[in-house]
Amino acid sequence: MKWLLKPRMFKTALFWQFFASYFILFIIPVIMANMFIYVYVVKVIENEVENTNTISMRNFSAQTDTAFSSLQVNMINLLGASNLKSVMKQFGDASKTPQYFEWIHSLMDQLNTLDTGEIVSNAYLYFADYDLVIGFNSDTNKETFFKYFFPVDERDKAGYLANFSGKKMMQFTKTYTLHQKVPFTDAILSSSSNISAVMSYPFNSSHPDVYLVVSMKQEELGKHISVNQKWTAGTAIVDESGGMISQTGDMRISPKEWQEIMRANTEGALFSDGKTRALTYAKSHFNDAWYYVSLIDLETLLKPVQRIRSFSFLFLVFFLVLGGFISYYLSKRLYRPILEIKNGLSSHNNRQAALPVQAGGNDYDLIKQFSNLLMSENKQLSQLVSGMFPIVQEDFIAKILSGEYRDNLSIALYAKEIDFPYDPSVTRTVLCIEIQYYSRVQGHISETSKSFMMAELKEQIHKSAAGTVWLCQLKPDLMACVVHHDPFLLFGPKEVSEFVALILQQFNAYFKATIGIGRKVQDIGDLHLSYESAMEMLQRKSLHSRVEVFGQEAAAGDQPDKPLLDSFLSAQEVNRIFNLYKSRNYERLLQSVYDLLDMAVENNASASQVKGLCSDVLNTWIRAVELERKEMNIPFYSGLFVELNRCITWEEIKTCFERIHAALFKQEQTADRNKQIAEILDYIHQHYGEELSVERFARQLNMSVSHFSRTFKDEVGEKYVEYITKHRLTMAKKYLLETDMKIDEISEKVGYMGRNSFIRIFCKYEGITPGKYRTIHHHTM
């Protein structure tokens, strides 16, 4: 290396010295930073995609499960309709009554309600033992229906018709092709891939009488389950064996591969093959054998990483070239004066002692000394920069609002230390924003989602305020907004509260927001006073779900010495509740709460007033119940108060009292229900010859048809239809043996519209015709 230090080569050596220093001090840290950024960005993207995809999967799986559950309930309700039973009773009749055709059209209307236009594309009733199919716009024989109204492709028809056997409880068929034809011709207009849900009736029969079929287009179902993310290549509903129920996009996955993925990965985890795609899945709550699967395109997902890698390479090349030019320029500039110094030293030996070069040194030593000088200066600059520690401004604002910093001088010094600029002469006002999540949302939203929501809220306020506010989150459910008054733009707390209310309205589906406006302060040290007054304004919030704003002007107009509503029950109200409980008028107990809440709404009562009154009502209910039961269950009653205190809207309080009412007075309500069922049985015994529809009694008890049917069977021990049929046959046998009435007269008297239907029901339960029954028993008598 000595040859590099020769005078004639010193310029090259100087260049490499500069370039080596540049490479060590700058290029190597840049390379390491690029590698770290590359690895970190890949990890962040994967984590973000996993979290985002998990949330999206939960949303679309919950939405799809809800759609299928709703469809299942509608199918069950349709099959349990009395019109279907009435139609089936007249299948054996040679002549059809006008009522029969009314029932047919009623069934068509009910089928038409299943055609939502989103998932369901067609629906029809397939009668197993009769050559009849009823669609939402036709009733015809099976051959005509499957040829013109529902033309399944001939290659799929045999497999499709095989579904109409055995018990089916919303079983899904394999995918089939359905054509759209010109009416009553074989001309095909278009074709689509479909899947059907099949349900049989009677539900528990292995040889059902009728099948309800709901057809869904694969394309529309695919849209319903699609995830709107650019990196998602496809989504699908897959069963445990790997069979595709429905899919959208490119979902090439074999059953064997699906089984291996399920064994090796947990629900919600991101599984990658390390090549071009990754996969995640979530289990369906509608069908335990179903899974919602999302396929992720790794090439699309990692495009930002590829760009970063390319940019990093170009960035490195640029700095290498730049370093070469800088090194060459510096070496050229520095070599000239050094050469002049050397020549001067050669001609003036007496001046060598004044030069920074040590005795016996050379030009390289001189360059080294200059380099040490530059390094020393860089070190001092680095120490100066490292002394400027970043301080979180939001923490500084929070301490001012809490009153920890009150002195203007200390605030100014601390702000200067952290480089926090502010104008001490500006008038300011604090706005407190309180967030209260609804009960229906509280159990379904994670803390991460809440954090993202608050971050989005802050960002929107910052963008709208254009630098005229300071934001600070003091608690998870409380945010402070410091407004700087601008007399020229006429921009103050009222204007800020208006656009903040508009922003909060966007989140009204998740939480109720209340804005409290504090009083104006001139000194920044008095901001804690404005904050305290804003917190006092929040106490004026009501139970409405809308965004509410309370300011000092509204407070000045109130009359605190005349409260709009007492927060406690009067002695007269307490005695009335005790009397209602003793008289077992439990419905009136609940209605009295509704009346109090309605009065509170009319008087525009605050939330604290209403909750105080409701707590007093609940306490009175508990005292009334415990006077008889004497079973003080403190944890249970304490939970009722906690549940009531969580309510933030009128609707939530009403729903809460309904649950509490049902829990406290459940036993007595059951006794009332027994009395109501007994009255219905007595009515049936007296009016068995009239039309006794299940809908009538369900409305009478304020129940759904299915709920009434279950309640009737639990109380009586028999199904509603079975009980009426047996009682009518009992009375019919009495008329057959004790009177000379004709069969037609008896059938009409016991509630049957025709002779044939009466004879068929009689044979089903007695094994013989009514005439044969009369003959046999008259002979025995």
TrEMBL record:
Task: Please give the name of this protein.
Answer: AraC family transcriptional regulator
Q: Where would I find the HTH araC/xylS-type domain in this sequence?
A: 678-776
Say yes or no: keyword Glycoprotein present: no
InterPro entries found in the cross-reference section: CdaR_GGDEF, Homeodomain-like_sf, HTH_AraC
Keywords on record = DNA-binding, Membrane, Transcription, Transcription regulation, Transmembrane, Transmembrane helix
Bilayer-spanning residue ranges: 20-41, 311-330
Which Pfam families does the record cross-reference, listed alphabetically?
GGDEF_2, HTH_18
Q: Which PROSITE patterns match?
A: HTH_ARAC_FAMILY_2
Q: Which organism is it from?
A: Paenibacillus thalictri
Gene3D superfamilies listed in its UniProt record? Homeodomain-like
Q: Name one GO molecular function term.
A: DNA-binding transcription factor activity
